[in-house]
Amino acid sequence: MARLRSFIEAHRRAVPLALAALALAMHAQFFVAAGDAHQRWDSSQYLETARNLVAGRGFTLDGRIEARRTPGYPAFLIPFAAVGFRSAVIAAVQHLLAVGLVVAIFYGTTALTGDLLAGAIAAFLLAIDSGQIYMANMVMTETLMSVILVAIVFVLARFSRSRSAALAALAGLLVALGVLVRPVAMYLWLPLAAWIVLSVPARRAAVLAAFLACAASLPLLWMWRNDVRAGTASLSSIAGEDLYYWRAAGAVAMHRSGFQYSPLPFSGEEEFRRQFFRVTQHEFVETATRALDARFGARAAMLSEVQVSEFEGTMARDIFRRYPGSLVLLTINGALHLVFDSTWMYADTLWGGTIRIVAITLMVVSAVVCFILAITGFVALRRVNAPVAWLLATMLLYFVAVSSGPEHEQWRYRVPLIPLEMILVAANVVGRPKTDLR
Predict the structure, then answer these.
(1) Rounded to whole angstroms, what are the CA distances from 130 to 135, 335, 350?
(2) Residue 372 pLDDT exceeds 90
(3) How far is the C-alpha of 363 from the C-alpha of 418, rounded, in Å?
(4) What is the CB neighbour count within 10 angstroms for residue 62?
(5) How far apart are CA 358 and CA 346, in angstroms?
(6) N or C: which end of the chain has fewer CB within 10 A?
(7) What's the pLDDT at 432?
(8) What is the CB neighbour count within 10 angstroms for residue 10?
(9) Are residues 191 and 198 in contact, defined by beta-carbon separation less than 8 angstroms?
(10) Would you say the C-alpha torsion 87, 359, 403, 374 has a positive or negative sign?
(11) Helix (H, G, I), strand (E, B) or coil at 404
Protein backbone atom coordinates (compact mmCIF):
# COMPACT_ATOMS: atom_id res chain seq x y z
CA MET A 1 0.00 0.00 0.00
CA ALA A 2 2.88 2.36 0.80
CA ARG A 3 4.40 1.81 -2.65
CA LEU A 4 1.06 2.45 -4.35
CA ARG A 5 0.59 5.63 -2.35
CA SER A 6 4.09 6.78 -3.24
CA PHE A 7 3.47 6.03 -6.92
CA ILE A 8 0.23 8.03 -6.96
CA GLU A 9 1.83 10.94 -5.12
CA ALA A 10 4.68 10.92 -7.63
CA HIS A 11 2.20 11.00 -10.54
CA ARG A 12 -0.52 13.16 -9.02
CA ARG A 13 -1.16 14.95 -12.31
CA ALA A 14 -1.28 11.84 -14.47
CA VAL A 15 -3.51 9.75 -12.17
CA PRO A 16 -6.75 11.73 -12.64
CA LEU A 17 -6.15 11.74 -16.40
CA ALA A 18 -5.68 7.96 -16.38
CA LEU A 19 -8.84 7.51 -14.30
CA ALA A 20 -10.80 9.75 -16.64
CA ALA A 21 -9.49 7.73 -19.61
CA LEU A 22 -10.57 4.49 -17.92
CA ALA A 23 -14.03 5.88 -17.21
CA LEU A 24 -14.36 7.20 -20.76
CA ALA A 25 -13.40 3.80 -22.17
CA MET A 26 -15.91 1.98 -19.95
CA HIS A 27 -18.73 4.38 -20.78
CA ALA A 28 -17.91 4.48 -24.51
CA GLN A 29 -17.80 0.68 -24.72
CA PHE A 30 -21.25 0.39 -23.17
CA PHE A 31 -22.64 3.25 -25.28
CA VAL A 32 -21.61 1.36 -28.44
CA ALA A 33 -22.70 -2.07 -27.18
CA ALA A 34 -26.16 -0.86 -26.10
CA GLY A 35 -26.99 0.53 -29.54
CA ASP A 36 -30.08 2.73 -29.64
CA ALA A 37 -31.46 1.62 -26.26
CA HIS A 38 -31.55 4.95 -24.43
CA GLN A 39 -35.11 5.09 -23.10
CA ARG A 40 -36.73 3.25 -20.20
CA TRP A 41 -39.38 3.83 -17.54
CA ASP A 42 -40.32 7.53 -17.67
CA SER A 43 -38.00 8.68 -20.48
CA SER A 44 -40.75 9.45 -22.98
CA GLN A 45 -42.60 11.65 -20.48
CA TYR A 46 -39.48 13.62 -19.62
CA LEU A 47 -38.85 14.20 -23.32
CA GLU A 48 -42.43 15.22 -24.05
CA THR A 49 -42.57 17.76 -21.23
CA ALA A 50 -39.23 19.20 -22.40
CA ARG A 51 -40.56 19.50 -25.96
CA ASN A 52 -43.70 21.22 -24.73
CA LEU A 53 -41.64 23.69 -22.69
CA VAL A 54 -39.56 24.58 -25.74
CA ALA A 55 -42.68 24.87 -27.91
CA GLY A 56 -44.28 27.33 -25.50
CA ARG A 57 -47.00 24.95 -24.34
CA GLY A 58 -45.82 25.08 -20.74
CA PHE A 59 -45.14 22.10 -18.50
CA THR A 60 -47.78 19.83 -20.00
CA LEU A 61 -48.17 16.17 -20.90
CA ASP A 62 -50.72 14.75 -23.33
CA GLY A 63 -52.26 18.20 -23.57
CA ARG A 64 -52.87 18.46 -19.80
CA ILE A 65 -51.18 20.44 -17.06
CA GLU A 66 -48.48 18.15 -15.71
CA ALA A 67 -48.26 17.85 -11.93
CA ARG A 68 -46.90 14.31 -11.62
CA ARG A 69 -43.36 15.12 -12.73
CA THR A 70 -41.12 17.82 -11.33
CA PRO A 71 -39.41 20.16 -13.82
CA GLY A 72 -35.74 19.67 -12.94
CA TYR A 73 -34.80 16.98 -15.46
CA PRO A 74 -37.00 18.29 -18.30
CA ALA A 75 -35.31 21.68 -17.82
CA PHE A 76 -31.94 19.92 -18.12
CA LEU A 77 -33.13 18.49 -21.44
CA ILE A 78 -34.12 21.86 -22.96
CA PRO A 79 -30.71 22.60 -24.56
CA PHE A 80 -31.03 19.33 -26.49
CA ALA A 81 -33.82 20.91 -28.53
CA ALA A 82 -30.99 22.08 -30.80
CA VAL A 83 -30.43 18.42 -31.82
CA GLY A 84 -34.09 17.43 -31.88
CA PHE A 85 -33.97 15.85 -28.42
CA ARG A 86 -32.07 12.89 -29.84
CA SER A 87 -31.73 10.31 -27.09
CA ALA A 88 -28.27 9.23 -28.22
CA VAL A 89 -26.93 12.78 -27.87
CA ILE A 90 -28.48 13.15 -24.41
CA ALA A 91 -26.94 9.83 -23.36
CA ALA A 92 -23.54 10.84 -24.73
CA VAL A 93 -23.57 14.06 -22.71
CA GLN A 94 -24.61 12.15 -19.59
CA HIS A 95 -21.73 9.72 -20.11
CA LEU A 96 -19.38 12.70 -20.26
CA LEU A 97 -20.92 14.09 -17.08
CA ALA A 98 -20.31 10.74 -15.39
CA VAL A 99 -16.68 10.79 -16.56
CA GLY A 100 -16.31 14.33 -15.20
CA LEU A 101 -17.78 13.12 -11.92
CA VAL A 102 -14.96 10.57 -11.66
CA VAL A 103 -12.40 13.37 -11.83
CA ALA A 104 -14.38 15.44 -9.32
CA ILE A 105 -14.50 12.49 -6.91
CA PHE A 106 -10.73 12.08 -7.21
CA TYR A 107 -10.01 15.68 -6.25
CA GLY A 108 -12.89 15.94 -3.79
CA THR A 109 -12.04 12.76 -1.90
CA THR A 110 -8.39 13.79 -1.77
CA ALA A 111 -9.39 17.14 -0.28
CA LEU A 112 -11.77 15.56 2.24
CA THR A 113 -9.30 12.91 3.42
CA GLY A 114 -5.90 14.46 2.77
CA ASP A 115 -4.93 11.24 0.97
CA LEU A 116 -4.30 10.93 -2.78
CA LEU A 117 -4.59 7.16 -2.62
CA ALA A 118 -8.10 7.44 -1.18
CA GLY A 119 -9.01 9.83 -3.96
CA ALA A 120 -7.68 7.44 -6.59
CA ILE A 121 -9.53 4.45 -5.14
CA ALA A 122 -12.85 6.29 -4.91
CA ALA A 123 -12.50 7.55 -8.50
CA PHE A 124 -11.47 4.11 -9.80
CA LEU A 125 -14.46 2.39 -8.20
CA LEU A 126 -16.79 5.03 -9.60
CA ALA A 127 -15.22 4.76 -13.06
CA ILE A 128 -16.05 1.05 -13.33
CA ASP A 129 -19.42 1.11 -11.54
CA SER A 130 -22.00 -0.67 -13.70
CA GLY A 131 -24.94 1.30 -12.33
CA GLN A 132 -23.39 4.66 -13.18
CA ILE A 133 -22.50 3.42 -16.66
CA TYR A 134 -25.92 1.89 -17.38
CA MET A 135 -28.00 4.82 -16.14
CA ALA A 136 -25.84 7.41 -17.92
CA ASN A 137 -26.94 5.66 -21.10
CA MET A 138 -30.62 6.26 -20.32
CA VAL A 139 -32.69 9.43 -20.59
CA MET A 140 -33.32 9.32 -16.87
CA THR A 141 -32.52 11.43 -13.81
CA GLU A 142 -29.83 9.33 -12.12
CA THR A 143 -26.72 10.92 -13.64
CA LEU A 144 -27.89 14.47 -13.02
CA MET A 145 -28.89 13.56 -9.46
CA SER A 146 -25.47 12.00 -8.88
CA VAL A 147 -23.83 15.29 -9.81
CA ILE A 148 -26.14 17.27 -7.53
CA LEU A 149 -25.59 15.01 -4.50
CA VAL A 150 -21.82 15.17 -4.91
CA ALA A 151 -22.03 18.96 -5.20
CA ILE A 152 -24.09 19.13 -1.98
CA VAL A 153 -21.46 17.09 -0.12
CA PHE A 154 -18.53 19.14 -1.39
CA VAL A 155 -20.22 22.47 -0.61
CA LEU A 156 -21.27 21.37 2.88
CA ALA A 157 -17.80 19.94 3.51
CA ARG A 158 -16.33 23.34 2.72
CA PHE A 159 -19.01 24.96 4.85
CA SER A 160 -18.07 22.77 7.84
CA ARG A 161 -14.69 24.52 7.92
CA SER A 162 -15.68 28.08 6.99
CA ARG A 163 -19.16 28.31 8.62
CA SER A 164 -20.09 30.65 5.77
CA ALA A 165 -23.76 31.60 5.42
CA ALA A 166 -23.17 31.96 1.67
CA LEU A 167 -22.04 28.34 1.43
CA ALA A 168 -25.01 27.23 3.54
CA ALA A 169 -27.30 29.10 1.12
CA LEU A 170 -25.59 27.48 -1.89
CA ALA A 171 -26.01 24.04 -0.33
CA GLY A 172 -29.69 24.81 0.27
CA LEU A 173 -30.13 25.84 -3.36
CA LEU A 174 -28.50 22.59 -4.50
CA VAL A 175 -30.89 20.65 -2.27
CA ALA A 176 -33.79 22.56 -3.85
CA LEU A 177 -32.55 21.65 -7.32
CA GLY A 178 -32.23 18.03 -6.23
CA VAL A 179 -35.86 18.03 -5.10
CA LEU A 180 -37.00 19.27 -8.51
CA VAL A 181 -34.96 16.52 -10.19
CA ARG A 182 -35.95 13.71 -7.81
CA PRO A 183 -38.89 14.44 -5.45
CA VAL A 184 -37.60 11.71 -3.14
CA ALA A 185 -35.21 14.39 -1.85
CA MET A 186 -38.06 16.60 -0.63
CA TYR A 187 -37.30 15.97 3.06
CA LEU A 188 -33.50 15.95 2.73
CA TRP A 189 -33.41 19.42 4.25
CA LEU A 190 -34.47 17.98 7.60
CA PRO A 191 -31.50 15.67 8.36
CA LEU A 192 -29.11 18.18 6.75
CA ALA A 193 -30.47 20.95 8.97
CA ALA A 194 -29.80 18.72 11.99
CA TRP A 195 -26.26 18.11 10.69
CA ILE A 196 -25.69 21.87 10.35
CA VAL A 197 -26.90 22.52 13.89
CA LEU A 198 -24.62 19.82 15.29
CA SER A 199 -21.63 20.82 13.14
CA VAL A 200 -21.64 24.58 13.63
CA PRO A 201 -20.51 25.78 17.07
CA ALA A 202 -21.53 29.40 16.42
CA ARG A 203 -23.82 31.46 14.15
CA ARG A 204 -26.23 28.53 14.00
CA ALA A 205 -29.32 30.69 13.52
CA ALA A 206 -27.89 32.67 10.60
CA VAL A 207 -26.47 29.76 8.63
CA LEU A 208 -29.48 27.56 9.32
CA ALA A 209 -31.86 30.29 8.14
CA ALA A 210 -29.84 30.75 4.95
CA PHE A 211 -29.83 27.02 4.27
CA LEU A 212 -33.53 26.48 4.96
CA ALA A 213 -34.68 29.51 2.99
CA CYS A 214 -32.82 28.40 -0.12
CA ALA A 215 -33.70 24.70 0.30
CA ALA A 216 -37.42 25.56 0.52
CA SER A 217 -37.48 28.19 -2.22
CA LEU A 218 -37.85 26.19 -5.43
CA PRO A 219 -39.98 23.36 -4.01
CA LEU A 220 -42.43 25.86 -2.48
CA LEU A 221 -42.65 27.76 -5.77
CA TRP A 222 -43.40 24.51 -7.59
CA MET A 223 -46.03 23.51 -5.03
CA TRP A 224 -47.64 26.95 -5.45
CA ARG A 225 -47.64 26.43 -9.21
CA ASN A 226 -49.29 23.01 -8.82
CA ASP A 227 -51.90 24.46 -6.49
CA VAL A 228 -52.80 27.22 -8.95
CA ARG A 229 -52.59 25.20 -12.18
CA ALA A 230 -53.52 21.65 -11.11
CA GLY A 231 -55.42 22.04 -7.85
CA THR A 232 -52.95 20.26 -5.60
CA ALA A 233 -50.58 21.98 -3.19
CA SER A 234 -48.08 19.13 -3.42
CA LEU A 235 -44.72 18.63 -5.03
CA SER A 236 -46.01 15.75 -7.15
CA SER A 237 -49.57 14.58 -7.66
CA ILE A 238 -48.36 11.00 -7.96
CA ALA A 239 -47.53 10.76 -4.26
CA GLY A 240 -50.83 9.24 -3.15
CA GLU A 241 -50.86 6.79 -6.04
CA ASP A 242 -47.34 5.62 -5.18
CA LEU A 243 -48.21 5.20 -1.51
CA TYR A 244 -51.28 3.13 -2.32
CA TYR A 245 -50.22 0.87 -5.19
CA TRP A 246 -46.63 0.37 -4.06
CA ARG A 247 -46.00 0.88 -0.36
CA ALA A 248 -49.45 -0.07 0.94
CA ALA A 249 -49.91 -2.93 -1.52
CA GLY A 250 -46.39 -4.08 -0.71
CA ALA A 251 -47.12 -4.05 3.02
CA VAL A 252 -50.20 -6.23 2.50
CA ALA A 253 -48.26 -8.59 0.23
CA MET A 254 -45.52 -8.85 2.87
CA HIS A 255 -48.15 -9.62 5.52
CA ARG A 256 -49.51 -12.46 3.39
CA SER A 257 -46.22 -13.97 2.25
CA GLY A 258 -44.01 -13.35 5.26
CA PHE A 259 -40.55 -11.87 5.05
CA GLN A 260 -38.42 -13.18 2.20
CA TYR A 261 -35.20 -11.88 0.74
CA SER A 262 -32.91 -12.88 -2.09
CA PRO A 263 -30.85 -10.45 -4.18
CA LEU A 264 -32.41 -9.98 -7.59
CA PRO A 265 -32.36 -11.37 -10.19
CA PHE A 266 -31.71 -14.59 -8.26
CA SER A 267 -34.70 -16.61 -7.08
CA GLY A 268 -35.92 -16.81 -3.51
CA GLU A 269 -38.75 -14.29 -3.27
CA GLU A 270 -41.24 -15.89 -5.60
CA GLU A 271 -44.13 -15.91 -3.15
CA PHE A 272 -43.76 -12.25 -2.19
CA ARG A 273 -43.35 -11.16 -5.82
CA ARG A 274 -46.37 -13.24 -6.82
CA GLN A 275 -48.47 -11.78 -4.04
CA PHE A 276 -47.40 -8.23 -4.81
CA PHE A 277 -47.42 -8.05 -8.61
CA ARG A 278 -50.03 -10.65 -9.53
CA VAL A 279 -52.49 -10.57 -6.63
CA THR A 280 -52.34 -7.56 -4.30
CA GLN A 281 -51.87 -4.79 -6.84
CA HIS A 282 -54.81 -6.09 -8.89
CA GLU A 283 -56.94 -6.29 -5.75
CA PHE A 284 -55.99 -2.74 -4.89
CA VAL A 285 -57.18 -1.50 -8.28
CA GLU A 286 -60.58 -3.10 -7.70
CA THR A 287 -60.74 -1.86 -4.09
CA ALA A 288 -59.94 1.70 -5.12
CA THR A 289 -62.59 1.63 -7.84
CA ARG A 290 -65.24 0.41 -5.40
CA ALA A 291 -64.17 2.94 -2.75
CA LEU A 292 -64.33 5.83 -5.21
CA ASP A 293 -67.78 4.76 -6.39
CA ALA A 294 -69.01 4.40 -2.82
CA ARG A 295 -67.63 7.79 -1.80
CA PHE A 296 -68.42 9.87 -4.89
CA GLY A 297 -71.03 7.90 -6.82
CA ALA A 298 -71.46 9.07 -10.41
CA ARG A 299 -69.02 11.93 -9.76
CA ALA A 300 -66.16 9.42 -9.45
CA ALA A 301 -65.75 9.39 -13.22
CA MET A 302 -65.36 13.18 -13.18
CA LEU A 303 -62.57 13.31 -10.62
CA SER A 304 -59.20 14.56 -11.78
CA GLU A 305 -56.03 12.49 -11.55
CA VAL A 306 -54.96 14.72 -8.65
CA GLN A 307 -58.15 14.09 -6.70
CA VAL A 308 -57.96 10.34 -7.27
CA SER A 309 -54.32 10.27 -6.13
CA GLU A 310 -55.16 12.19 -2.95
CA PHE A 311 -58.01 9.77 -2.20
CA GLU A 312 -55.69 6.81 -2.76
CA GLY A 313 -53.13 8.39 -0.43
CA THR A 314 -55.76 8.49 2.32
CA MET A 315 -56.51 4.81 1.75
CA ALA A 316 -52.79 4.02 1.88
CA ARG A 317 -52.36 5.70 5.25
CA ASP A 318 -55.24 3.66 6.64
CA ILE A 319 -53.48 0.49 5.49
CA PHE A 320 -50.21 1.61 7.09
CA ARG A 321 -52.00 1.95 10.42
CA ARG A 322 -53.37 -1.60 10.08
CA TYR A 323 -50.09 -3.21 9.02
CA PRO A 324 -47.24 -1.25 10.68
CA GLY A 325 -45.07 -4.32 11.22
CA SER A 326 -45.40 -5.43 7.61
CA LEU A 327 -44.56 -1.92 6.44
CA VAL A 328 -41.34 -2.06 8.47
CA LEU A 329 -40.46 -5.47 6.98
CA LEU A 330 -41.23 -4.16 3.50
CA THR A 331 -38.87 -1.24 4.05
CA ILE A 332 -36.13 -3.57 5.29
CA ASN A 333 -36.63 -5.80 2.27
CA GLY A 334 -36.49 -2.81 -0.06
CA ALA A 335 -33.34 -1.50 1.63
CA LEU A 336 -31.61 -4.85 1.17
CA HIS A 337 -32.48 -4.82 -2.52
CA LEU A 338 -31.43 -1.21 -2.94
CA VAL A 339 -28.04 -1.85 -1.38
CA PHE A 340 -27.20 -5.36 -2.62
CA ASP A 341 -28.99 -6.08 -5.90
CA SER A 342 -26.86 -6.37 -9.01
CA THR A 343 -27.18 -4.09 -12.02
CA TRP A 344 -28.38 -7.05 -14.03
CA MET A 345 -29.54 -4.87 -16.92
CA TYR A 346 -25.89 -3.90 -17.49
CA ALA A 347 -24.91 -7.58 -17.61
CA ASP A 348 -27.87 -8.43 -19.88
CA THR A 349 -26.67 -5.83 -22.40
CA LEU A 350 -23.08 -7.02 -22.57
CA TRP A 351 -23.11 -10.75 -21.99
CA GLY A 352 -25.12 -13.94 -22.14
CA GLY A 353 -24.95 -17.47 -20.79
CA THR A 354 -22.45 -18.36 -18.11
CA ILE A 355 -20.51 -15.09 -18.37
CA ARG A 356 -23.68 -13.15 -17.55
CA ILE A 357 -24.36 -15.27 -14.47
CA VAL A 358 -20.76 -14.89 -13.27
CA ALA A 359 -20.89 -11.12 -13.83
CA ILE A 360 -24.15 -10.75 -11.90
CA THR A 361 -22.77 -12.85 -9.04
CA LEU A 362 -19.64 -10.71 -8.89
CA MET A 363 -21.81 -7.57 -8.82
CA VAL A 364 -23.71 -8.86 -5.79
CA VAL A 365 -20.47 -9.84 -4.04
CA SER A 366 -19.02 -6.42 -4.85
CA ALA A 367 -22.09 -4.68 -3.43
CA VAL A 368 -21.77 -6.65 -0.18
CA VAL A 369 -18.04 -5.93 0.11
CA CYS A 370 -18.52 -2.22 -0.62
CA PHE A 371 -21.26 -2.00 1.99
CA ILE A 372 -19.00 -3.49 4.65
CA LEU A 373 -16.08 -1.29 3.59
CA ALA A 374 -18.33 1.79 3.65
CA ILE A 375 -19.10 1.11 7.32
CA THR A 376 -15.46 0.63 8.25
CA GLY A 377 -14.56 3.61 6.05
CA PHE A 378 -17.00 5.75 8.02
CA VAL A 379 -15.12 4.87 11.20
CA ALA A 380 -11.79 5.69 9.56
CA LEU A 381 -13.00 8.96 8.05
CA ARG A 382 -14.54 10.03 11.35
CA ARG A 383 -11.04 10.06 12.87
CA VAL A 384 -9.82 12.37 10.11
CA ASN A 385 -12.83 14.48 9.17
CA ALA A 386 -15.75 13.75 11.47
CA PRO A 387 -18.21 16.32 10.04
CA VAL A 388 -17.88 14.91 6.53
CA ALA A 389 -18.12 11.32 7.78
CA TRP A 390 -21.42 12.13 9.48
CA LEU A 391 -22.59 14.12 6.44
CA LEU A 392 -22.06 11.17 4.10
CA ALA A 393 -23.71 8.77 6.53
CA THR A 394 -26.67 11.12 6.97
CA MET A 395 -27.30 11.44 3.24
CA LEU A 396 -26.89 7.73 2.54
CA LEU A 397 -29.20 6.72 5.39
CA TYR A 398 -31.83 9.24 4.31
CA PHE A 399 -32.01 8.05 0.72
CA VAL A 400 -31.96 4.37 1.62
CA ALA A 401 -34.78 4.91 4.13
CA VAL A 402 -37.07 6.89 1.83
CA SER A 403 -36.33 4.95 -1.38
CA SER A 404 -36.74 1.41 -0.06
CA GLY A 405 -39.90 -0.21 -1.37
CA PRO A 406 -41.20 -3.22 -3.30
CA GLU A 407 -40.22 -1.99 -6.78
CA HIS A 408 -38.58 -4.68 -8.89
CA GLU A 409 -35.56 -2.58 -9.87
CA GLN A 410 -34.52 -1.04 -6.58
CA TRP A 411 -30.89 -1.03 -7.70
CA ARG A 412 -31.36 2.08 -9.81
CA TYR A 413 -32.21 4.12 -6.70
CA ARG A 414 -28.71 3.26 -5.48
CA VAL A 415 -27.00 4.81 -8.51
CA PRO A 416 -26.94 8.48 -7.33
CA LEU A 417 -25.60 7.27 -3.96
CA ILE A 418 -22.65 5.35 -5.42
CA PRO A 419 -20.22 8.34 -5.48
CA LEU A 420 -20.93 9.01 -1.80
CA GLU A 421 -20.51 5.35 -0.88
CA MET A 422 -17.21 5.15 -2.78
CA ILE A 423 -15.80 8.04 -0.75
CA LEU A 424 -16.46 6.04 2.42
CA VAL A 425 -15.04 2.86 0.90
CA ALA A 426 -11.85 4.68 -0.08
CA ALA A 427 -11.51 6.20 3.39
CA ASN A 428 -10.31 2.81 4.66
CA VAL A 429 -6.83 3.55 3.30
CA VAL A 430 -6.53 7.03 4.76
CA GLY A 431 -3.25 7.55 6.55
CA ARG A 432 -2.30 10.27 8.99
CA PRO A 433 -3.42 13.60 7.49
CA LYS A 434 -0.81 16.24 6.82
CA THR A 435 -3.19 18.92 8.08
CA ASP A 436 -6.15 18.94 10.43
CA LEU A 437 -9.22 18.53 8.18
CA ARG A 438 -11.82 18.65 10.92
Answers:
(1) 8, 19, 11
(2) yes
(3) 13
(4) 8
(5) 13
(6) N
(7) 55
(8) 11
(9) no
(10) negative
(11) coil
Using pLDDT thresholds of 50, 70 and 90, give the confidence band for residue 277. very high
Nearest to 213 by CA among 235, 184, 193, 236: 193
Nearest to 153 by CA among 108, 185, 187: 108
The answer to whether 88 touches 67, Cβ cutoff 8 Å, is: no
Residue 309 to residues 218, 252, 292, 327: CA-CA distances in angstroms? 23, 19, 11, 20
Region 116-142 average pLDDT: 97
Nearest to 118 by CA among 397, 409, 392, 352: 392
Average pLDDT over residues 58-68: 90
pLDDT at residue 73 is higher than 90: yes
Q: Is the pTM of this model over 0.90?
A: yes
352-373 b/e (C-beta count within 10 Å ≥ 16 → b): eeeeeeebbeebbebbeebeeb
**pLDDT tops 50 at residue 314:** yes
Burial class (CB in 10 A: 0-12, 13-18, 19+), 192: buried
Q: What is residue 388's predicted lDDT score, i.e. its pLDDT? A: 97
- Cα(340)–Cα(407) distance, rounded to whole angstroms? 14
CA distances to 18, 115, 271, 421 from 15, rounded to whole Å, are 5, 13, 49, 21
Q: How far is CA 69 from CA 44, 132, 174, 189, in A?
A: 12, 23, 19, 20
Query: In 35-141, which ranges are continuous DSSP H helix?
Result: 43-54, 72-77, 87-113, 116-127, 130-136
In Å, how far from its chain's centre is CA 276?
A: 24
